[in-house]
Amino acid sequence: MKHDDPQCRLYGQLLYEHILSPHALRHWFSVQLVIMGEDIAQIQYWRGDNNPESAISYLMNKGDLMKELSLVNNMFADFMVREGKNLYGKTES
After folding, report:
1. Helices (H), the chain
2. Cys-Cys link to 55, which of 22, 33, 44, 82 (CB 3.0-4.6 A)?
3. How far apart are CA 44 and CA 26, in angstroms?
């Protein structure tokens, strides 16, 4: 929260305002593995799963995950622009 970089401060504020559970972080990590192209065995290994079914469910939903990621990225970009304007004033393009 006291970092010199405004983006780090904003990210810290988002984390502070929105409580993340260990499950949410595990899900995020699993999605990142799928997006990076890891196979079932690697996802199972990194998640610590005894059974590949959990990894398979992420891979089966890869298209949906990619759509959600794109949506969230766009929402985050819009939020950053809006907050930047609030912090630094509106500029004319």
Report:
1. 6-17, 22-35, 40-47, 53-60, 62-88
2. 44
3. 12
